[in-house]
Amino acid sequence: MIQDSRARRAAWRALGALVPFLAIAAASPAGALHIEVGNVRGHTGRVHVDICTQAQFLKDCPISGDAPARMGTTVVTLAGLRPGRYAAQVFYDENGNGKIDRALFGIPKEGVGFSNDAKIRLSPPRWEDAVFAFDGRETTIRLNLRYFLGRGVRR
I need a surface site. Which of 139, 142, 150, 155 has the fewest CB within 10 A? Predict the structure, then answer.
């Protein structure tokens, strides 16, 4: 009986040591999201991507990344993204100042776009038009930039 009790305690200690590892393994997976941004009209500056939840949409989103601009298509990859429903808001930062340059009435001077190629009509798109589901596995989404001032940037 004494040996049986000691064996049980040893087994519980061993199981207790495994619990943190089991908790890590059971946590939600985090994967890579590749955003293929088409219609990039230059090769200077960077293409910037913000990934937003519904509450953050059209605001300052904490999940972001960028890549050097490549004429045609630029791919921005975000690693470690948790599963969920998101929207991507993208802009081509031609001059590298970290923000969307705007003209009169707030019209973007640089290319902008949203996931699902959500339409931009006198205002940014609605969440419902830009939302996509990310299941935590490596995924690629595609969208195209739109330009509103007819600047055919080709630097």
Answer: 150
